[in-house]
Amino acid sequence: MAVITYRQALHDTLREEMLSDENVFLIGEEIGVFEGSYKITAGLLEEFGEKRVRDTPIAEEGFVGAAVGAAMLGLRPVVELMTINFSLLALDQIVNHAAKIYGMFGGQSNAPMVLRTPGGGGQQLGATHSQNIELYYAFVPGLKVVAPSTPADARALLKASLADNDPVLFLENLALYNTKGEVPDDMPPAEIGRAGVTRTGSDITIIGYSRMATVATQVADQLGEEGISAEVIDLRSLRPLDRETLVESVRKTGCAVIAEDDWLTYGIGAEIAASISDGAFDYLDAPVRRVAAAEVPLPYAKPLERAALPSAESLNAAVRQTLDAVGHRR
Amino acid sequence: MTEIHMPRLSDTMEEGVISTWRKQVGDQINRGDVVADIETDKAVMEMEAYDDGVLEKILIAEGETVPIGVPIGIMGDGSGAAAAAGTSGGGSDGSTGGSATTAASSESGSTETASPDTAAPRSAASTESDADPRERPKASPLARAVAREKGVDLSTVTGTGPGGRIIRVDIEAAAEATTDTESSRQSAPEPQPTERSESHQQSQDLEEIPLSNIRKVTARRLTESKQQAPHFYLTSAVDVTDLVSFRSDLNERLQASGGPKVSVNDLVVKACATALRANPSVNVSFRDEKLFQHNRVHLGVAVALDSGLVVPVIPDADRKSVSEIAAEGKEKAERARDGKLKPDEMSGSTFSVSNLGMFGIEEFSAVINPPEAAILAVGATREEVQVHDGEFVVRKMMRMTLSADHRAVDGAVGAVFMQQLTSLLQDPIRIIA
């Protein structure tokens, strides 16, 4: 068992999958000679050659479309979109083509491809480079959307995504690339659509994914020191969504706070809140509360950017408000 | 528009019954007029109007019970507009249940004609069903689920969540607080399934009697008393031969001067007051883990009514003459029977006397009336054969039992009190000394 970074886990898993299946190939901007904007593909061009590691022009719709075609014909492309913000340029290929191939053509063909892409703010990259728009993809039937928060999950979910016959949007987060964690060598693929209960507790359920799942864990640890027992759920998969685990947890704790890096209105938290209301209404002792980013284009200025994003402090405060509302006596 | 609310008429009052509406819809009300008679936990009180106006709507019908603060009627200028506007406000804290809407809807016909535009939708809503969502207590879904499971009536629970929302801990506390008391059985919305099937079978033989407020309060307080106060009992046999002749003697003299007759109980009350003055450690209360010494002696004298038990108080009984005690006791007992005793005339006693001698009961032990620390149960006087100086003699004997709260009074302290009380009753001239 090794302690490695999230970045390293992605790199190692890609390399391993390329070694074990010659149909797996990488395609994207600057992934070859430049070794990837975030160095996930470092050394792979050298090892696997240009046929397996394809540098492309700045033309997202073009290379995503090429990947869809390749997938339909039996290859397993892994597309790197430099940031999720640029995926908008390929929206037609992703939403209107990749997602619909299996259903629209009566199952005669499918598009087994992985769209790797980092999202998230906090890096002072300005409003157009700091978004969390995974919701756009989680909305679309035919796509799967996964969002690992730890190096181990990154490895297990990337394996599962490559094995899946549906197109998978694989959401990375810039803030997580350098985080470290234990990654077992013989890790089996994850089950897409299964959330993780990363802390068990009885007083409140905190739900997050990607970066906010790690923040949730941090807050749960702080609360634990004060004798508050918070259960943390890391969604891992936004589509399909593991409603069962959410509902089961809230039935146990009676209240929930959802933490998300994206905007509040119509957000993923809204979907989760609705799922909880549907499955655990009679078990709720307080309204489900959501912590999300300020509803503005993310500011460039560091203090403003920090103020706009949800933090451990804002999540902690929301948890306390909810606990107060259910008369939790500390 | 002015809402008339169920008033708080005593410290212990939590809800009241509209005994009689003295005004009807359409009546002019002037400030100070008696609007209704309200039956509290202790008495029937007259409720006076604080404002002038016309009674436009009666929200709570006679015989209905509602918590204090709940609107029971609406006053306006007589146009009916207030009544129409008031429909939504009536019973706004959600505790009135079906009775409010029933009463309101029975009046709605006239108000709708007065101002159909505003009145119609509201009235229609309230006639639809008595489960008007605006009148539901605010409770979390979990609290509702737990309340269903535990059989707790939400309208009896005070919410501690945001905006007064009832949350799970409130239901759990309420369920715990009321598990053993009579009142919980009364407030539980439905009997348990087994009881229900039983009562179904026996519906001919078994009928539920609505609890009077006095009965509810008695049940609650005496249950608390028996559960919380560790009772112990001291019984003495008193030779009242002299007391009885002293009483006839006294009554002859009092009658000659036009005074009231004195009963044996009046003499017992006076003797108790004297003995309490001499034994202050019995004239105490135990409350909230604290012991309180009463520096005045106020005696409660239990009076049985058809509707339950009330205990009028004779303040400063130790400083009053026996004939004063007799007069005051008689007058208060009569008013208690009429339900006209004011709540403050029934509270503040520091010791109580309960006498069942007139029913031939020889000896019994009473339940302490909290927060008092003791109560004296007095039995009947009867002739008994006693041994005096080796001879059988017939004497008049009376047995009395002191129930004392051991948290506040020890056995020997109670025994000394009983000894002095016995000695006073056996040497009655000292009672009036």
UniProtKB/TrEMBL annotation, chain A:
Required cofactor names: thiamine diphosphate
**Keyword Transport tagged:** no
- What SMART domains does its record include? Transket_pyr
The terms under GO molecular function for this entry are:
magnesium ion binding; oxidoreductase activity
Query: Where does the record place a coiled coil?
Result: none
Q: Which domain of life is it from?
A: Bacteria
Instruction: Alphabetically list the UniProt keywords.
Output: Oxidoreductase, Pyruvate, Thiamine pyrophosphate
Q: Where is the Transketolase-like pyrimidine-binding domain?
A: 4-179
UniProt protein name: Pyruvate dehydrogenase E1 component beta subunit
